[in-house]
Sequence to fold (350 residues):
Amino acid sequence: MADIFGLSLPELQDVLEPFQVPKYRARQVAEWLYQRGAQSFGEMTNLPKTLRVRLNEELSIGRPSAAGRLDSVDGRTTKLLLEFKDGTAVETVLMRQPYGNSICVSTQAGCNMGCAFCASALHGMTRNLTRNEILAQAVVINDMLREENGGKVDTVVIMGSGEPLMNYDNVLGFIRLLHEDYVLGLGYRNFTLSTSGIVPKMYDLAEAGVPISLSVSLHAPNNELRNRIMPINRKFPLEDVVAAARHYAELTKRRVTYEYILIDGLNDGEPQAKELVKLLHGQLASVNLIPINPVRERNLLRPSRVRIESFEHYLAAHKVVVTVRREMGADIQAACGQLRNRHLEQEMQK
Ligand code: SAH
Fold:
């Protein structure tokens, strides 16, 4: 049976064609799927009863199910483990921020970038998620917020497990679809995509006509160190990544954010701060410092507060716009991939 969850309006129109219904029915179905939380055709009460019965016989609505849920003690962060039809599970995180509800979606089940500090890399990559599976994460959380208190998803960060630019078409399709008024109608400015630096795709994204914010995972100010902690740097070296980010900023007029995980004794000293300032000189960019979330399986530690602050102050004193990421949900293993890993390990023990 054809699964219609995640289809665009034109695609829904095609699927409904054999049912010989007026065109506006497709929009009604879309609104039920994406804005009104319908789990079945029976609920779509503005469709004629006979149509509902026929749709039910021939089509299905494949919403992912929540295989796990964790709420932080302060109630502001919720992490869902969503399971798709084939049993693949991914993490989606909701952060109730003062400026709105922000969600973090995954684009791949696992990841094969192999970054030394990242929990998503531990079990490699299972597969790319489809456009519809990425969309489902946003819709499921939006439904949850609506039921909670009439809330909605306000911003989306594409920073969950996976490298989004290694799944480019599905990710771009997801952004465009979520932007549609019959889905969530989210403005492009409310999206942020984070990449480890897949250079050719960064250029493609600049041309794609979706002026979203770009974050680049830098984590080191020179090739020698970046090669050690991010194997992808051997393919796309630092200077090419920075040039692509600079091009993105110039073309879209959007400030690029460089993410820089601070790891004790590795990349958090004054020499590295100095190199970083030099590297980013004159760019429309900001740096987001992320004190590492220690991953149990890796022996990388978080620097002391003093070291974090001196790194921050060095950048600020040299006119680099810098912020330190506030931590949310550390008590629920919100660090990338940690919940999914626990799940995989439990599955393996069965
Ligand atoms: N592959 C993309 C998106 C996923 S990672 C990318 O590399 O940007 C999203 C962000 O979380 C990246 O900046 C990543 O480096 C960071 N991250 C991964 N593991 C982390 C950890 N243990 N502590 C803090 N941040 C981490």
Notes: The domain at 2-60 is CATH 1.10.150.530 (DNA polymerase; domain 1). Residues 113, 117-118, 159, 163, 194-196, 217, 259, 261, 290, 292-293, 295, 335-336 surround S-adenosyl-L-homocysteine (CB under 6 Å). The longest strand covers residues 89-97.
